[in-house]
Specification:
With 759 residues, this protein is of the alpha+beta class. 26% of the residues lie in helices and 25% in strands. It has 6 domains: 5-60, no CATH class; 66-129, OB fold (Dihydrolipoamide Acetyltransferase, E2P) (Beta Barrel); 134-201, Beta Barrel (OB fold (Dihydrolipoamide Acetyltransferase, E2P)), CATH 2.40.50.700; 238-477 and 539-638, no CATH class; 482-534, no CATH class; 656-737, Nucleic acid-binding proteins (OB fold (Dihydrolipoamide Acetyltransferase, E2P)), CATH 2.40.50. It contains 15 helices and 33 strands.
Length: 759
């Protein structure tokens, strides 16, 4: 089938019916077999009550009991539907899955309402889009059936293979296979597939990357459509080539996204900070084939030493900032007061010239350079003339960071481990897009400088587009749930951490809680727990608070259009406003308003864009596009987390059999997890391996307690462990705890909380 149910539903207008012929055209169906499949799909969806067919065509039925969600399963067989609208997760029993798999987009109907400490239950009514078209597996013979057993144990099924694939049987488990699905399960019939190729398990770094790309369906990405790129117009373009301009280079991997450039301008009104973004939106038509392809890609993905870029090679080459040459940009000039508050801004289409590229090594040399030293370090000599400007940028960003933190923005000391194979994955994005918290960074680091400036620019554009009522994509980051923050505080209190609660017993703000944790010897594990309850950042059609960026009303990201499509969309909107926005009611009016600055707010009572332009924008910024972009962001996070876990597991393989000191990072009824530096790899000490006693789990105190010897294993404790086994493909590390000599049968100090009741 050339389309999914989700794709079919996206073509239907919100209220009106669509003739079948137009639906066929929208789906690109021209052959008779494809049209026949569409007819079968329409009939099935009508029976399910999703669609209704009238004389005018096909229309989606408005049914509030059907909820769009994404399925998340565990290896234990528990499945939940994560709602696209952010509502409470729905528990799906195995007999209500209706052949849906982990990751699938589904329509769910609630069958039992939730209650206190109990999730609502429901059943899958329709699978909108399959997440798994192929999988990594190992081939096994079971009786007379040849099966592919998925490596991902969240896929609660096996796939039947033809007998001709018996040659892929691997009794020594030295390889895995890529299986393409030929048929999903239907009624009583199991899924069918065939082996595409064999992949080695221990083939080195490139082989591991091939495994990762294959697992996530990224090995063969669709090529960009052929299209002729347009040159940005010189009309009404401000010439800023005489302005000293710096490009901060935060990444070193091949095909890394294009980063913005920065300038400082002294004027009669004081200092103005300029942020220059590569001019991408002017080079192709919004809604055209290239734009739709970019929208489908959604994000650039970091693979460590290289990237899977969002942009096509031609578009990236055309828009890149080349030092010493004139480059087209979309810029904003920002003015701040002495407290670091944004006081004025102005957007413009510009031409700039990058005078110098500042590498991380140069900023490090600047941090270590003594002001009165007579010699200049070698790393600073290429940018000697730009040092005063760079030092002024450091002063400005320090002020902006201070204001952001005072406004409640959260930073945590949770950097990724410095493993060589991780490359750019060790460097946080200049503008955190997914997490509601930032990694603490030294101030002399390219990302630390960039992110403060980009936050300011996104706040300016958010305020501007919101005031003008234009259909932007906003990034929303609501405050954390108070009850979840309280649970983290209770965990800290259970570890005797002095957390000051309010009069009504509530925990302090996350920023203050993080500061309390940072002053203890259990800082990392507690900050990790805090990070897990901070709401992620989501894209929204409606403006809202963005706590991470210290913005209470509207935040519209636009400075990284080669990293996120949402930024590209907002740049398209800004360029359209600057080039075609109506700055007066009609040609008879002589007085114009300045659409590039806040001075026009509250003065416009006429349409800024034509009805056709607004209609196309509103239709393009659909709910389905928002869901797709948010989903693509989650997918990118999963890929990068997978790459990190693989690198950590590989770093642990040479340590099998060795005894190491780690920190207990999590405690569960089945055992406890231990994080081992320097790779921060996390392994499990299963409770069954603790032979010296029977251990009780006390969840409120985050500890396991021995019934006889009262030995405790508590969150944040240091323990001696031995790495027993490493499964790099599944990222599983098996550990065994080592007891002090002569202490195998007890003798540990009694637990002070031993008389507390078991949870």
């Amino acid at each position: 089938m050339k389309f999914t149910v989700a794709h079919l539903l996206e073509q239907l207008p919100a209220a009106d019916a669509l003739p079948v012929a137009k639906l066929e055209k929208a789906l690109g169906l021209s052959l008779k077999p494809d049209k026949s499949q569409l007819r079968i799909a329409l009939e099935g969806l009508s029976r399910l009550g999703v669609l209704v067919e009238t004389e005018d065509g096909i229309q989606r039925r408005q049914d509030d009991t059907l909820i769009e969600a994404r399925l998340r399963c565990s290896s234990k067989g528990f499945c939940f539907a994560l709602r696209e609208d952010g509502g409470e997760d729905i528990y799906i029993r195995d007999h209500q899955l209706n052949h849906a798999w982990n990751g699938d987009r589904v329509l769910v109907r609630i069958t039992r309402e939730g209650g206190r400490r109990r999730s609502p239950e429901g059943g899958v009514q329709c699978i909108l889009e399959r997440a798994t078209t192929h999988l990594l597996a190992q081939v096994e013979q079971q009786d007379d059936r040849l099966l592919a057993v998925p490596l991902d144990d969240r896929l609660l099924t096996s796939v039947e293979l033809p007998g001709s694939d018996a040659s892929y049987l691997d009794t020594e488990k030295q390889s895995v296979v890529e299986v393409l699905l030929d048929r999903y399960p239907v009624a009583q019939f199991p899924p069918l597939g065939h082996v595409e190729r064999r992949l080695p398990i221990n083939g080195g770094e490139e082989a591991d990357l091939d495994l990762l790309l294959t697992k996530h369906g990224l090995r063969q990405r669709p090529a960009a459509p052929r299209s002729s790129l347009k040159a940005p117009s010189d009309k009404a373009r401000a010439d800023l080539t005489a302005l000293p301009t710096l490009l901060l280079n935060g990444w070193s991997g091949s095909d890394a996204p294009i980063l913005p450039a920065f300038s400082l301008e002294e004027g009669d009104g004081g200092l103005r900070l300029w942020i220059h973004v590569p001019a991408l939106a002017e080079r192709f038509s919004p809604g055209g084939s290239l734009d739709l392809w970019l929208r489908e890609q959604g994000e650039s993905i970091c693979l460590g030493r290289r990237w899977l870029p969002l942009l096509s090679p031609a578009l990236s080459k055309a828009a890149a900032f080349k030092p010493g040459e004139a480059n087209a940009a979309v810029s904003v000039g920002l003015s701040c007061n002495e407290q670091g508050e944004l006081s004025d801004y102005r957007f413009a289409l510009t031409t700039i010239q990058v005078d110098a590229v500042v590498e991380a090594s140069a900023l490090q040399a600047l941090a270590e350079h003594k002001p009165k030293a007579r010699t200049i370090p070698a790393a600073l000599k290429p940018i000697k003339d730009q040092l005063p400007q760079l030092e002024r940028l450091l002063e400005i960003t320090a002020l902006l960071r201070q204001r952001r933190l005072e406004s409640g923005s959260l930073e945590l000391d949770l950097p990724r481990p410095s493993l060589e194979s991780l490359g750019d994955l060790c460097v946080p994005s200049p503008e955190e897009r997914r997490s509601g918290w930032m990694v603490q960074l030294p101030e002399h680091q390219p990302t630390a400088l960039m992110r403060e400036l980009l936050i300011l620019a996104s706040r300016a554009l958010g305020a501007h587009l919101c005031a003008l009522g234009l259909p932007a994509l906003y990034a929303v980051n609501p405050p954390a749930d108070g009850s979840e923050i309280n649970e983290v505080a209770k965990a800290a209190l259970g570890l005797d951490i002095p957390v000051e609660l309010s009069e009504d017993g509530n925990a302090p703000a996350p920023r203050d809680l993080a500061a309390t944790f940072a002053a203890t010897d259990r800082s990392r594990v507690l900050q990790r727990q805090l990070s897990e309850v901070i709401p992620p950042i989501q894209l929204s059609a409606s403006p809202g608070a963005h706590g991470l960026g210290a913005e209470s009303a509207a935040y519209a990201p636009w400075c990284l259009p080669s990293l996120h499509y949402a930024d590209l969309w907002n740049q398209q909107l800004l360029v359209l406003l600057l080039t075609e926005g109506k700055d007066r009611p009609s040609v008879r009016h002589k007085t114009r308003v300045d659409l590039a600055s806040a001075s026009c707010h509250g003065t416009i009572d006429w349409p800024l864009l034509t009805p056709t332009q607004m209609s196309e924008l509103q239709q393009g910024r659909s709910e389905s596009m928002l869901q797709r972009l948010n989903g693509r962001g989650r997918f990118t996070a999963e890929v990068e987390a997978d790459l990190l876990a693989m690198a950590q597991a590989r770093a642990a393989e040479p340590l099998v059999g060795q005894t190491l000191t780690g920190v207990i990072s999590g405690v569960q009824s089945y055992g406890f997890f231990v994080e081992i530096p320097p790779s921060q790899v996390e392994g499990l000490v299963h409770v069954s391996s603790l032979k010296d006693d029977w251990y009780e789990y006390r969840s409120r105190q985050n500890r396991l307690v021995g019934r006889k010897n009262r030995r405790t294993y508590m969150l944040g404790d240091q323990v001696e462990v031995q790495i027993q086994n490493v499964d790099a493909l599944r990222h599983q590390i098996d550990l065994a705890v080592l007891l002090p000599e002569g202490d195998d049968e007890g003798g540990a100090e009694a637990d002070p909380a031993s008389d507390d009741g078991e949870d």
